[in-house]
Amino acid sequence: MALSLTSLFILTGCGAKRETSENSTAPTEPTKVKVDVVGENNEVWNFVKEKLAKENIEIEIVSFTDYNQPNDALVNGDIELNSFQHKIFLEPITESSQPYVNIIVARSADVENETYKKIVAAYQSDDTKKIIEETYKGSYVPVW
Q1: CA atoms within 13 A on the CB side of 80
Q2: How far apart are the first and last CA of the chain?
Q3: Is the pLDDT of residue 34 over 80?
């Protein structure tokens, strides 16, 4: 199965915050984004979820039990971001490949999505790095 996915970890910058119209003081509805996880260990994504709630982004964590399910879910539009993708799946293997680096991916059509860029930026932050280091004690290593 050929997938058309784009890794978001290489994108930089964050978009402007969502705004209400000039004449409206009512808050806008949160932007909802489904992000997959494999397994039940969600401490890091729960931390990112809380952080993004302050930016009016609502993360729904969708748990899978097998590593192939998120790929199909992303292609089918059941989730917006695949948080457990290996670089090796997206690129040919070369001598300089880093096949076991997990990356966050979206469909190619969504590569410029400002909300997704905010999610990646929130994940790839110093405070999230600290949570990863405390939670996984070296079994996962942030590489950003």
Answers
A1: 19
A2: 29
A3: yes
